[in-house]
C-alpha cells in the first residue's frame, strides 16, 4: 500500500456533504456536494495492507478494492479505472445505489469506521468520464450468433455489454419507452441523475448493442418468435410483482404500489408531457397526508419524492423494530451491519414509525381517508399485536414499498415454458440455464429481489455461460456467484 500506516493517521471517515435540505428540496438534482481529490485520497490511504481483504468477500463482483484504493492514493486514476472496469461494468451505478456490503466487511471496520470504498469507486468512474477515458470496447471479430436480452436493468445491461464485446450480435428488449429498467423509472433523480445511464448507453450503442425500447417481449414479439430469431435468450426481466397488502379497504382510491408512484416523478424530470391542468402528474403527493408502508430503500425513495412534490405530511411505517445504532451480538463483523441508518430522504423530514402493522384502510366516497393500525412485538419468531396500541392515522395517499415477490409470469415466461422455484422465481442451473435449451436467466428474475451489485455480477456470470453455450468456450471474466442462493 502507498501508506501502510494511513489507517492509523486518519481514523475518521469522511464523506461528501449533502446540500442543505431547504436548497435540495427545491430541485431534483443529486443531493451530494463535490468531494475534493485530496480528501478522497486521504480516505483511500486508510485502506489497510490486510492479509485477507474481506471486502472481496463482501462484494459479489469481487472488485479489486485494495488495488484501486492504492492507485487513487497515488494519483494514478487511469490505472484505477482499468482495475475497476475489470470487474464492474457500471461503477457509476453501484457507486451511487449499492448499499456497500464491501464496507460492512472491511477489516478496518472491526474497530474503526470502514474505508469509504463506495465513494472512492464513484469518484474513479466520474473522473474517467470527465477525462474521456470511458470509450467503446469493440470485439475483435463477430461470431455470427444472435442473443436477445430481455430487460434493460443492471443485469440485462451487464450481460448485453459482455456478450457484445465477445462478438455476438445482441439486442436488448425493454417494454418501457426508455432503456434503464428500474434504474430509469424506479430510482429518483435526486438519488441518481439519469445522465449517468444515458452516457453509458451511448458507449454500449457505439460498441454494437442494439436497444429496442417499447417492446414487450412475450406480447409485442412472441416467445416462439424470439426463440426462432435468436441463438440464445437471457431473461433479465427482474422481480417486478410488488408485495400487496390485502386488508379491508384495499380497493379504495389513493392506495398505490411504489412503482405506480415513482415513475411519474421521473417522467416529469425526463421532460415528458404528463402533467395535468394543475401542473401535477397523475399520482402526486402534493398537499397530501402520505403514509408509506415499508421502511427500506424504496420507501425512502417514496419519502424523498413526496417531500419534493410538497406533501403535507409523511409517515413511513415499518413492521420491524427500529435497528440498533451499533452492531448487535447476533450481527458480528464481517456480516452486513443491520444498523439504524439515516438516508438523505429521512434527513429531509417525515416520521419513521417502527413495530407497526396496518389493519385496515378507511375511506369516504371511494377514496382513502385514513388507516387503522397497531403496534407489534416479536414473540417466538412471530409478530404479535400489542393490546391497547391501536391508532388511526389520516391518509389520502398510501404507498406500498414492501418489496417484490417475483417476476411476472404471464406472457413471456409462461410462453417460453420455463420452470419456477418454490418462491416463484425462474429456476436455473449452476450454469444460469433454465429448463428451456438456449434460455438463461440472470438477476432478480432468477435470484429474487436483491441488490444492484448482485444483478451486475449475475449478468456478467450469465454472459460467460451464454458465450460458452454458443462457442463451446468463453474468455469472458465472470464473478463466482452462487445461483441457488435465493432458491431454498
Q: Can you offer a commentary on this structure?
A:
With 488 residues, this protein is α/β, with parallel strands linked by helices. The protein has 3 domains: 126 residues, Fumarate Reductase Iron-sulfur Protein, Chain B, domain 2, CATH 1.10.1060.10; 178 residues, 3-Layer(bba) Sandwich (FAD/NAD(P)-binding domain); 146 residues, FAD/NAD(P)-binding domain (3-Layer(bba) Sandwich), CATH 3.50.50.60. The chain has 19 helices and 14 strands. It has a 5-stranded parallel β-sheet with strand order 3-2-1-4-14, with helices on both faces. The protein has a 5-stranded parallel β-sheet with strand order 5-13-6-7-8. Helix 3 packs across helix 5, helix 6 crosses helix 9 and helix 10 runs parallel beside helix 19. The longest helix has 20 residues. The mean pLDDT is 96.
Strands, total number: 14
Alpha carbon gyration radius? 23 Å
**Largest sheet strand order:** 3-2-1-4-14
**Euclidean distance between termini CA atoms:** 41 Å
Structural class by secondary-structure content: alpha/beta
Could you give a quick summary of the protein structure above?
The protein is an alpha/beta fold and 488 residues long. Helix content is 33%, strand content 15%.
Amino acid at each position: 500500500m502507498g501508506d501502510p500506516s494511513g489507517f492509523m493517521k486518519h481514523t475518521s471517515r469522511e464523506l461528501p456533504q449533502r446540500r442543505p435540505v431547504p436548497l435540495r428540496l427545491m430541485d431534483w438534482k443529486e443531493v451530494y456536494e463535490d468531494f475534493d481529490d485530496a480528501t478522497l485520497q486521504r480516505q483511500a490511504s486508510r485502506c489497510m495492507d490486510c492479509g485477507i481483504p474481506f471486502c472481496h468477500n463482501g462484494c459479489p463482483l469481487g472488485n479489486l478494492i485494495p488495488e484501486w484504493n492504492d492507485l487513487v492514493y497515488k494519483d494514478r486514476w487511469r490505472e484505477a479505472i482499468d482495475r475497476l472496469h475489470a470487474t464492474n461494468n457500471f461503477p457509476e451505478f453501484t457507486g451511487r445505489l449499492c448499499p456497500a456490503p464491501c464496507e460492512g466487511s472491511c477489516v478496518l471496520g472491526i474497530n474503526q469506521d470502514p474505508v469509504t470504498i463506495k465513494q472512492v469507486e464513484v469518484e474513479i468512474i466520474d473522473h474517467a468520464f470527465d477525462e474521456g477515458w470511458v470509450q467503446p470496447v469493440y470485439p475483435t471479430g463477430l461470431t455470427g450468433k444472435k442473443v436477445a436480452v430481455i430487460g434493460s436493468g443492471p443485469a440485462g445491461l451487464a450481460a448485453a455489454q459482455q456478450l457484445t464485446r465477445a462478438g455476438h450480435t445482441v439486442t436488448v428488449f425493454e417494454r418501457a419507452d426508455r432503456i434503464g429498467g428500474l434504474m430509469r423509472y424506479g430510482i429518483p433523480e435526486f438519488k441518481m441523475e439519469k445522465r449517468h445511464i444515458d452516457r453509458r448507453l451511448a458507449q454500449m450503442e457505439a460498441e454494437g448493442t442494439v436497444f429496442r425500447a417499447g417492446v414487450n417481449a412475450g406480447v409485442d414479439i412472441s416467445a416462439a418468435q424470439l426463440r426462432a430469431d435468436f441463438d440464445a435468450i437471457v431473461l433479465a426481466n427482474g422481480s417486478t410483482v410488488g408485495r400487496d397488502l390485502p386488508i379491508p379497504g384495499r380497493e379504495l382510491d389513493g392506495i398505490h404500489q411504489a412503482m405506480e408512484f415513482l415513475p411519474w416523478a421521473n417522467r416529469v424530470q425526463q421532460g415528458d408531457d404528463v402533467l395535468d391542468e394543475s401542473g401535477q402528474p397523475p399520482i402526486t403527493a402534493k398537499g397530501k397526508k402520505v403514509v408509506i408502508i415499508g421502511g427500506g430503500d424504496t420507501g425512502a425513495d417514496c419519502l424523498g419524492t413526496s417531500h419534493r412534490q410538497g406533501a403535507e405530511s409523511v409517515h413511513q411505517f415499518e413492521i420491524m423494530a427500529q435497528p440498533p445504532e451499533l452492531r448487535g451480538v447476533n450481527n458480528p463483523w464481517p456480516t452486513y451491519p443491520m444498523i439504524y441508518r439515516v438516508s438523505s430522504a429521512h434527513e429531509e423530514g417525515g416520521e419513521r414509525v417502527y413495530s407497526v402493522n396496518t389493519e385496515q384502510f378507511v375511506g369516504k366516497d371511494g377514496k382513502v381517508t385514513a388507516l387503522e393500525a397497531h403496534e407489534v412485538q416479536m414473540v417466538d419468531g412471530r409478530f404479535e399485536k400489542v393490546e391497547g396500541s391501536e391508532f388511526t392515522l389520516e391518509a389520502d395517499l398510501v404507498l406500498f414499498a414492501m418489496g417484490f415477490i417475483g417476476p411476472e409470469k404471464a406472457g413471456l415466461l409462461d410462453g417460453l415454458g420455463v420452470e419456477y422455484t418454490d418462491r416463484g422465481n425462474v429456476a436455473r442451473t449452476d450454469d444460469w440455464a433454465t429448463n428451456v435449451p438456449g434460455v438463461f436467466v440472470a438477476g432478480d428474475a432468477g435470484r429474487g429481489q436483491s441488490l444492484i451489485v448482485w444483478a451486475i455480477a449475475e449478468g456478467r456470470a450469465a454472459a460467460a455461460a451464454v458465450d460458452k453455450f454458443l462457442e463451446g468456450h468463453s474468455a469472458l471474466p465472470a464473478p463466482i456467484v452462487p445461483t441457488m442462493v435465493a432458491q431454498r
